[in-house]
Every structure is written in structure tokens, then in C-alpha cells.
Design a protein that fits this description.
Strand content: 5-15%
Largest sheet: 6 strands, mixed
Number of helices: 15
Structural class: alpha+beta
Strand order of the largest sheet: 1-7-8-4-3-2
Distance between the termini: 57 Å
């Protein structure tokens, strides 16, 4: 259900949130018990929003409220509340396309930029599990289904031109969140920017080299242009392991407030980048040499299975569900047409893979030199050990970005990562 019973926007702290939820009969019944007895805990550890867990004697809910600024920075960085609308819109569409892989929506108030969702328990943030060395056997099947369905069925392969243009227009106003991506991922790590940070002094030289690397600047600028100018499908827009909640048997994708129509490889590359960072960070979390070898092997196997599973499912939809205006059936009639179209499908996927490799590299570099970092690396206590892990990841990322076409298969990526597992970089300081 949706509603806008409140007046002007206001930030809801515990008491105000309790009163608001108590006034929603369906929500109050779901939580159960007297509102005064509800346990309300603010758990938001992200960069932008307030997140509350509300529990009563019948059950619990999650409540997310957008703030009018970037939480990580403060009021000096204002941000439109409309991002909550786009998140709600994206979650609604994702629930249609990939049922059971996003949290159930229970209530939305556009005025308050507030959404009430299913409480995911005993799910954990996947990134935290990976830091602990936990393996998730269901993850590959679920994330490949999520990406293949949400990307294919919002693309020109599945939609008419008019449907696609209407869909693009519905998300076009989310440009403030796109601007964050355009700056923090595609621009700031490669120049002097006040909000950049890295593991100093050990990575000082590497940070300087990024600012002087013109081949890298060309490569990242091409990716930025693709991000801005290629509305291929509906992206989650921030699909990292901190936006995925898991158990051994379930996967839920959360937090699509960066959603917009963009290049498909951006979402796929984000997933692969975060797995590769978990791989490189793993040695820094060892208590004894070789302790996490089996986990690291699983991570690289997962990288390969994610791409291969996504590509297989995406191609399967294209062969059986292609009702869009791209590649008209009338142009590929008969056995000859079918054979030629299949060759083109494979070429399309190769181009998508090249994009994925490049975007994965961009996501990696920004997490080491930009504003917002990953706990995969940040929780490595010894800064020198952390810098070694990060330098290995950056070495791979630089190659993936500048020489993306040289990586023809996902095994090329994991093979290159494996070779860098014990490489010893020269550090500054």
C-alpha cells in the first residue's frame, strides 16, 4: 500500500516513527502488540539513509527513510528526496521481473521519502559474510536470475521502442544519483579531489600514478560516456555485496536507489568487482597462512559462474522471449537467418562482457581511492597488509580497464587474479 497521510517532510526519529507506524493499521497489526512496547533500532550503516528495524510480538519490519543530504558527509552535500521514489519504483519493477529476489514492499510515503519493507531475517549483508570467509551456495543461481531477468526484460530485446522510451522517462529524473556515480566512480579517483582517500602513505605513489596515467584516463572516460549515453536496460545502479542480503539458501537484492536506464555491464561488473575485491582482501583476514585457501577458490569459481550463468540465462531469454523492436524477426527468417542471428547474439554477449570487465575495474579502483570504501579491505587491521591487498586489486583493475578486449573469457579474469594473489607490490612510505 502507499500513502501520504503526513504533511511536509520531516526526519523521523524513534518517537515520531513509532507514532507514524502506529497510525498504519495494517503495519501495526503485522508488528503486533502495543506500539509503546515495540523495539525500534536504527541500523543504517550505509552512506545515504536512515534504516530502522521495528519489532513487536508478532513480527518485524524494516523502515528506510531518505535524508535530504548524503549521510556519510553531512548537510554540506544536499541530495534530493526523490531518490526514495525511484527506489520504490525500481523495487516494484524488480519484484515483477524477479519475484522472491527483492524484499516485499509493505508501504511507501512519497512525502516522507519513507518505505516500509519486509524484515529480512536471518539474512546478513553478503559483504560481511565474505569478510568472515562464509560461502553461499545459492548465490550464483539467484544473482544470475536477478540480473538476467531485470536486464533482459527491460531492454530493447524485450520491449517495443515506445515501451522502452516510456520506461527510460520514468527514471530520467534520478540524475542526482547518477551524478554521484559519474563523479565518484568515473572521475574523482583519477584527479585531485577533496573527498578521495586511500591507505596512506603506502599507496601514495599508486594514487599519484592514477592521476598521471593518460591511457587509464581515456579508458575511464569511455566508460563514463557509456554510462551516461547507453540506456540499455534498467540498472540497479549500486549492485555490490553490501546491497545483497543472503543466507545459505536465499538471496535478496536491496537498496536500488541509484536505479536508472544504463549499460547492462555496469550492474554485472559491479557484482564481479566486489567478488574480486573479496578475493584480494582475503589474505589480509588470515590468521594463519593458507587458512582461507578453500574460500578463495570458491570466490574465483563464483566469479566464473556468475558471468557464465548470467550469459546463459540472458541468451536463453533472447532465444525464447524476444518480443522487442531490436533485431526484428522478419529480418532473420529461415535457417539462414536463425544461424546468422545466433552469431550476432554471441557477438553481442562478447561486447557486453568487454563492458563488464571495464566497469568491474572502475568499481574496484573507486573503492580503494575514492570516497566510499569496502569493509573487505577496511577491516584488515594492519595498514601495510591492507595496502598490499589493495595494490594487487588495482593492478588487475588497471589491466582490465586499459586492455579490456584482451580478456576474452571470464577465465582470463580469474586467471589474472590468481597470478596476482601473492604478488608483492612496491609500496610508498
Amino acid at each position: 500500500m502507499t500513502g501520504s497521510r503526513a504533511g511536509n517532510y520531516r526526519i523521523l526519529q524513534e518517537a515520531a516513527l513509532r507514532d507514524y507506524l502506529a497510525g498504519l493499521p495494517e503495519i501495526a497489526a503485522l508488528v503486533g502488540g502495543a506500539p509503546a512496547a515495540w523495539a525500534i533500532t536504527e541500523v543504517g550503516d550505509g552512506n545515504l539513509n536512515l534504516v530502522f528495524i521495528v519489532k513487536g510480538n508478532r513480527g518485524g519490519i524494516a523502515v528506510k527513510q531518505a535524508l535530504p543530504y548524503v549521510r556519510l558527509v553531512g548537510e554540506s552535500w544536499p541530495l534530493p528526496l526523490s531518490r526514495a521514489h525511484y527506489e520504490y519504483l525500481a523495487l516494484s519493477r524488480q519484484a515483477e521481473l524477479a519475484p522472491g529476489l527483492v524484499p516485499a514492499l509493505l508501504h511507501h510515503n512519497e512525502t516522507l521519502a519513507l518505505t516500509v519493507m519486509e524484515l529480512l531475517e536471518p539474512h546478513v549483508i553478503m559483504r560481511k559474510g565474505l569478510v568472515a570467509g562464509t560461502r553461499y551456495p545459492r548465490f550464483v543461481e539467484d544473482i544470475t536470475t536477478f540480473m538476467a531477468r531485470t536486464l533482459f526484460f527491460t531492454s530493447d530485446l524485450a520491449l517495443t521502442a515506445a515501451e522502452k522510451k516510456d520506461a527510460i522517462a520514468a527514471f530520467a529524473g534520478n540524475h542526482a544519483l547518477c551524478k554521484i556515480t559519474e563523479d565518484l566512480i568515473f572521475t574523482d579517483p583519477y584527479r585531485v579531489a577533496a573527498q578521495n582517500r586511500w591507505t596512506a602513505p603506502y599507496l601514495d605513489g599508486l594514487a599519484a600514478s592514477l592521476r598521471d596515467d593518460m591511457e587509464l584516463h581515456v579508458a575511464i572516460s569511455r566508460l563514463k560516456l557509456k554510462f551516461m549515453a547507453s540506456p540499455e536496460g534498467l540498472l540497479h545502479g549500486d549492485l555490490h555485496t553490501g546491497s545483497i542480503m543472503v543466507t545459505e539458501g536465499e538471496t535478496r537484492v536491496i537498496d536500488p536507489e541509484f536505479a536508472f536506464y544504463g549499460p547492462m555491464g555496469f550492474d554485472v561488473g559491479a557484482v564481479l568487482a566486489n567478488l574480486l575485491m573479496a578475493y584480494f582482501a582475503s589474505s589480509g583476514h588470515e590468521r594463519s597462512p593458507g587458512e582461507r585457501q578453500a574460500f578463495e577458490s570458491w570466490v574465483l569459481e563464483t566469479v566464473e559462474k556468475v558471468w557464465n550463468g548470467f550469459a546463459r540465462k540472458f541468451l536463453g531469454f533472447w532465444r525464447t522471449e524476444a518480443r522487442g523492436d531490436a533485431y526484428p524477426v522478419s529480418l532473420f527468417a529461415g535457417d539462414k537467418g536463425a544461424a546468422r542471428l545466433e552469431i550476432e547474439r554471441q557477438a553481442y554477449m562478447q561486447r557486453l562482457f568487454t563492458d563488464t570487465v571495464g566497469f568491474a575495474a572502475a568499481k574496484t579502483i573507486r573503492r580503494i581511492f575514492g570516497l566510499a570504501h569496502n569493509i573487505d579491505f577496511e577491516l584488515i587491521e594492519d595498514p601495510k597488509s591492507r595496502a598490499v591487498s589493495e595494490a594487487r586489486a588495482v593492478r588487475l583493475a588497471r589491466g582490465m580497464m586499459v586492455e579490456a578486449v584482451a580478456f576474452r573469457t571470464i577465465a582470463d579474469v580469474t586467471g589474472a587474479a590468481r597470478k596476482l594473489r601473492d604478488w608483492q607490490p612496491e609500496l610508498s612510505g
